[in-house]
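If your schedule permits, I should be very grateful for your opinion on a structural question. I have a record of one protein: its chain in single-letter code and its fold written as discrete structure tokens. Would you kindly read the sequence against the tokens and tell me how you understand this chain to fold? Thank you for your consideration; the sequence and its tokens are set out here.


***
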Amino acid sequence: MATAPRPRTTTRDPEELAHRLTAWLDTRLPGAKAVDIRVPSSNGMSSETLLFDIDHPEPPLHACALRLAADPAAYTVFPVYDLARQFRTMRLVADRTDLPVPAVRWLEEDPGPLGAPFFVMERAEGRVPPDVMPYTYEGNWLHAATDAEREHLEAASVGIVARLHDQVPLSEAEFLTLSGDGDALHRHVASQRAYYAWVVDGLARSPLIESAFERLTELWPTDPGEPVLNWGDARIGNVVYDGFDPVAVLDWEMAAPAPREVDLGWTVYLHRFFQDLTVAFGQPGLPEFFHRDRVEARYAELTGHTPRDMDFYTLYAALRHAIVMLRIAYRQVHFGEVAVPADPDTLILHHGSLRAMVQGSYWG
């Protein structure tokens, strides 16, 4: 990880994109110009983000962010990018909770202006825990913080998940219901099986991922409980912080009804993913940060719901992440950045920890 090139995140020409954005903006706010257009260093490999300011005598917005569906010709990470769904989700959460969700202003479903659908939202100023190099590595603001500052950030971030689950009426989120049969958990897992089938279509399959699905069946919760609206990508890398307080909750493309523990398992495991990588490269990382027991206890205190079956849900999180990692690896193969190894499981960065979870030895 310390030496491998970062996978490319876009195939689009930034200058052409900026020109087209300015032309589109004039149709929504005549006389306005998009200025200081830039791609954030934290841009991911799914939907793309552009940051820009509006130059206008009386702008309704000054600082903006634009979320653009991935270029369908660029070997996308996900099969579908439903920007209208994300737009509607953010409006729902902003309307029904006290979470700091950026106000969404414009939705453009016509792919003509920028080559794909997009929406524009207000931009919050602050800082985001880095993914590359991960915040668990030395040399970034979160690693350099005091234990008390990190504990404050952790508590506030678990609070985001707790309040989301408690405050959004699920009846108003029916448009996010996943297709298929059975309860919300069965539908959620079925959607991941379908995603995996899409990722390996015509390519080498992953025996490890398939064994993880089998292990999920063995660990299936007796009572998953009533579903709530899940954020879907519940991790601190999707939060903007002012100091150590959340000021913007981002990336809602995986939102869906599911048991509470689906979000919690993702929150716990995505930190462990970075922590394990950091330890493997000879640094201590942040072993007490987002510790599973502490996250579960804090969530229970905030909601009155004691998390259960967390071995299942952390395995499920690691499995979901493995499918994404495999797709990203095959994307690198597509662009000639890496070659396919004899064992496709080694394309999954966390194959060791996922295997340990399947075997039941990861959590000790």
Observations:
- The CA atoms of residues 67 and 126 lie 18 Å apart.
- The chain has a mean pLDDT of 93.
- The beta strands are 33-38, 48-55, 63-68, 104-108, 118-122, 228-230, 239-242, 245-249, 256-258.
